[in-house]
Amino acid sequence: MSSPDEVAGNLEMFDRPNDIVLLGEENEVMTDMDDLCSSHVVEVKSLVYWHKPLHSAVVLIVLLAIQFSFLCFSAISIVAYSGFLLLVSVNLCRLYYHYIAKTENKLIRDYLERDIALPKERIADATRRLTDHANDFLVQARDIFLLTNVGVSLKFGVLLYVLTYVGAFFNFLTLCIVATLLVFFVPKFYESYQSEIDRLCKTTKEMTNKVMS
Asked: Is the torsion defined by CA of 195, 196, 200, 206 positive or negative?
């Protein structure tokens, strides 16, 4: 328990009475952002580990379809055709329900009545976090390219040199397709055969240690 003097001292740190309210609102925004991130992490894990096979299959097919589309067609064509298809589909659906079914589709009505305005508090908090990450990135880039840390600069140079060979054999979209397949299949495969894989890795590690010793 804090003493009355400590509480009074903490309150004196604020220049204005409104600062206490602003601090409380900022803490609420941070809590909401953390809860939102946690819920997104749970959803991603559910997709990756195929807890809902139908949802995971749909997401995987959509991602692969988008990536293969960019692999075969130009980005402008994909955006134009996708927007045109969405526009025609939604309006045909609305015309059907309005003139033939004589009612309003529940999904469309929910979107029409939903508040789609972006919350200013979350945008401001996300902007602050993005600014912090950007500043950290700029500092690290300066240290790497100006040889402030020679070891890190050498490692980065070796990485770039290796990437030149990777880029000679694969393009970026091919790597994205491979990464998507690995993300959706490797965790589930490891979860299904965890004991066998751990046993094999342990045996391999022991054999490697014997050879190296």
From this structure: positive
